[in-house]
Amino acid sequence: MSDYAEIRRLGKAIQAANESNNTTEIHTLMTLLTKFSATEEILRKTEVGLVVGKLRNHADASVSVAAKNLVRKWKQDVISSSGIKGKPAPTSTASSKATTPSAPDAQPSAPKVAGSTNSSSQNGAATGGTPAPLSATVTPMVSAKASPITSPISATPSRTTTPTAATSTSPPAQPAAAAGPPKKRDVNTDGVKVKPTGDPARDQCTKMLYAALATNSGADSELLLKRAVAIEAFVFQQSGTTNVAYKSKIKSLFLNLGQKSNPGLREAVASGDITIPQICTMSSQDMASEERKAKDRQLQEDNLFKARGAGPMQAETDQFRCGRCKSRKCTYYQMQTRSADEPMTTFVTCTNCENRWKFC
User: Where in the chain do CATH 2.20.25.10 domains reside?
Assistant: First the structure.
């Protein structure tokens, strides 16, 4: 079975496991998917990215994290498959020759090189032969091209060999991640041609919807174009013309579908889980991401709490005695219930039996 067929099979199995809410099976299938190296072509043809992408908003936190990790791995695979790869490091023959001594015993020390001619001739007489010239043993080890050492004469060959080997190789290749994030998708980068409708405004709106649906998506370009055309046509049919209502609805769809924090909405529209009439009749609040909806609910609760009117200030006292239980544990507050020149009305509540009374 080819990789395409196996990945497509695993994607359908994940979708079936998600429908039956079998989180254990979902984890097992996603683990199998991690063994495949993803490319842009594989993700588009198998449409497995749509299936796994929807799981990033799964109610189970472990499934959501696993889906995010898998999508992140696929992005790195796509970057690696299309990124800049380093060139192999060339070897320098000249430098290797320069760092190799001509003979094991030809290792002159610094004092001998700095010495006079008489000392070298004495060494030659002692061995019974003609001494080798100093340049024959020293010059190859201090080649200016092979070694970065600035000293005119090296003390030992081993000190020149290490930096020479370092300079004979090219710098290490940059990792594939340096190639940058994937390119932004639109009708131009994907090479998609929008069929003209005769109205430039409508054609431009279709292109905008395509770019919104393609944001961080690995879906096939033909599928995204089909959805964008259908959405624009439905909105135009509801409005009848490119009036203010038409443009306002297109703008709302473009902003909500194009949000990077709302991948679930894009993938649901691309996969057909949300139909064209449904997405076109949804409000901005309905199209918002789950994170945005949670923040809105929290904001509404906070505003409701802050909007509550302040009640009258009450104080505890023992100056009053309850006529029912004879207790002196009471709370009271005062309020101006009559005209301004009249005294305030005092309201008293017994904390023991909840008996209430008032007096002026």
Answer: 315-359
